[in-house]
Amino acid sequence: MHYIASQVSVCFNKLRESQGSNKPTFISGRDRGGSDLNSPKLVVVGSAAVDISCRSDAKSAESLDAGSTTPGRIAIGFGGVARNIAEAAHRILSARGDVNATMLISPIASDHFSGLIMSNLKSLGLREDGLLKSTSRQCRSATCAMFLDRQGELINGIADMSITVSMHNQHVRALFWSRGFM
Asked: What is the pTM (predicted TM-score) of this model?
């Protein structure tokens, strides 16, 4: 056990040194359930995001005044292509009795949105040990705000996925190596 911990520490320090001080460093998550998880059968790498949908009650997009608010409904959901694929695969494999077969590898920040993402994965029964938490205060968890008209059609939106492009293959390798999957 000490050998593995020291190897992870060495790998982590090399990773930090190679990135420089202004680049984010990711620390892999641990199984919050406290149990040892087996090597996954399916790994999905990419974004897990919080989706914020703002649906206007206005009768038309033209009736939305710039610089003001309008009555409507706001909902929070979860997305990100990788998260959606991992959820679908998890549902299929869990129905066959293989509840820990799917691993989502996705970067998250140290912010409130990351807590929502982890809570969502936990509620689905999807393992969380593939989440890579950024140690940089400048990183934000992937978030998408969508502005919808009364019929639910997209008017416009903003997608902040910058944390996803900051994750590199060495983060994934370090995660697998630290778990003994390689």
From this structure: 0.76
Domain of residue 47: give its range: 26-167
CB neighbours of residue 57 within 10 Å: 11
Q: How far apart are CA 107 and CA 104, in angstroms?
A: 10
Q: What is the CATH number of the domain that holds 66?
A: 3.40.1190.20
Q: In angstroms, rounded to a whole number, what is the distance separating the alpha carbons of residues 37 and 31?
A: 8
Would you say 139 and 23 are in contact if contact means Cβ atoms under 8 Å apart? Answer: no
Total count of domains within the chain: 1
In a domain, 10, yes or no: no
Question: Does residue 150 fall inside a structural domain?
Answer: yes
Residue 44 within a domain: yes
Residue 8 in domain:
no
Structure-block tokens of residue 32: 């919050």
Instruction: For 106-131, write each residue's pLDDT tens digit.
Output: 999 999 999 999 999 999 999 999 99
Give mean pLDDT in consecutive 10-residue pieces for the chain, a chain of 182 residues: 44 49 50 57 94 87 72 95 95 92 94 96 94 89 94 93 86 80 67
DSSP string, 26-68: EEE---TT-SPPPPPSEEEES--EEEEEEEE-SSSGGGSPTTS
- Alpha-carbon torsion, ordered 60, 65, 66, 69, to 10 deg: -100
